[in-house]
Specification:
The protein contains 15 helices and 2 strands. It has a two-stranded antiparallel sheet. A hairpin with a 2-residue loop joins strand 1 and strand 2. It is mostly helical and 371 residues long.
């Protein structure tokens, strides 16, 4: 098991945790078919993603119309489709799908926690405890599903989420203190994964992908509609080349949501884009963030950051965005693969070690770059 992780640069514990595998395993007890089990898992977490987006964006924008168009654009977002259909990054897709619901549950717990201690209705106290339990279970599953998403999500989304909490939810000190307990339980539930991660991060051979960032050779013009109209991917799953990594719909949604007071959100999106396409900013980041493996993972956070800029839109804008999104959703082009050939194809196409140049961006840190 350890040898296979070294061979393919996917070390046990470091990238693919066992959380989601255990959940799929439970489905396999009832339906002994791997394909059906994973398909049901995709459907279930896609539904969770949609529900979380709807509740969270409705809460932020106070507009169901904005929530519905955001859902349509987010579920057809090219990088999410790449994760699911091209890179087959099931664990990453599942982890991302839990983020909106987790954020919404935090807002509910802070809301209800304001009156929990003084509440005399036992039913409402039980409702709060049940909600707390759901948050602990989902949060624990999130942490033990995908380490990279677990690391980056609070870092990237922390500031805008806290600004939303303090400006719109306005929790009391008591509700914050009540929230400490579920977070402690989430960490405690995840120690069986987190401890091996900490113990093995310096002992497993994980090639250049953990030591640094695999930057991709594309420019800003490749992010939008320029020389090619529709998204294509390469045969190398580690480097899904997309002409439309954002897709036109997400760009138009960002324009529709823009208002001056949300300038911080757009500044953060700009920093994310800079991190994706340029190396210099990585020089100032702690080496722990190099575990992202390749910079394109950060495309995940463009739509998730945009959630916090959500505001009401007109019916005409809604219809226009819906038509454009549906049109573009028909043109996601994924690579073909014969059954049983995925790993062999990926490994055959990946350059051998002597075909890479290495450049240093920090002490004891190298970044592989294709010749």
């Amino acid at each position: 098991m350890a040898n296979s992780s070294k061979l393919f640069s996917y070390p046990i514990y470091q990238y693919y945790n066992f959380g989601i595998s255990h959940l799929i395993g439970l489905i396999l007890f009832a339906i002994p078919d791997v394909v059906i089990a994973f398909t049901l898992g995709i459907w279930a977490f896609s539904a969770l993603f949609v529900a979380g987006l709807y509740f969270l964006i409705t809460r932020i924008s106070r507009s169901r119309r904005s929530a519905l168009i955001s859902i349509l654009i987010f579920i057809t977002y090219p990088y999410f489709l790449v994760n699911l259909l091209t890179r087959y990054a099931f664990a990453e897709y599942v982890a991302i799908s839990m983020v909106p619901m987790l954020l919404y549950l935090v807002t509910l717990l802070l809301d209800k926690g304001n009156t929990f201690l003084s509440e005399k209705d036992i039913k409402k106290k039980i409702d709060y405890i049940l909600l707390d339990s759901v948050f602990v279970l989902l949060g624990s599953l999130f942490v033990i599903t995908h380490n990279i998403t677990t690391l980056y999500t609070p870092v990237v989304l922390g500031i805008p989420f806290l600004l939303f909490i303090f400006s719109r939810v306005r929790p009391t000190r008591a509700s914050f203190l009540l929230l400490i307990a579920p977070f402690i339980l989430i960490i405690a539930n995840s120690l069986f994964i987190l401890v091996p991660v900490a113990q093995n991060q310096n002992t497993l051979l994980i090639s250049g992908s953990f030591a640094g960032i695999l930057f991709n050779n594309f420019g800003l013009n490749d992010l939008f509609v320029t020389t090619k109209l529709f998204p294509f991917t390469s045969a190398l799953s580690g480097q899904p080349y997309l002409t439309l990594q954002f897709g036109l719909p997400i760009v138009l949604l960002a324009i529709a949501f823009f208002k001056p007071k949300n300038i911080l959100i757009y500044l953060l999106i700009g920093i994310v884009i800079w991190l994706i396409v340029a190396a210099p900013l990585w020089h100032i980041l702690p080496p722990i963030f190099y575990v992202t493996q390749f910079s394109m993972r950060l495309f995940t956070y463009v739509p998730l950051l945009l959630i916090f800029a959500a505001r009401p839109i007109s019916k005409k804008v809604f219809i226009a965005l819906a038509v454009i999104t549906i049109f573009f959703s028909f043109f996601f082009i994924q690579r073909p693969n014969r059954p049983g050939q995925l790993i062999a194809n990926d490994y055959d196409e990946f350059p051998s070690e002597n075909q890479w140049n290495y450049r240093t961006i920090g002490e004891n840190t190298t970044i592989p770059a294709p010749v």
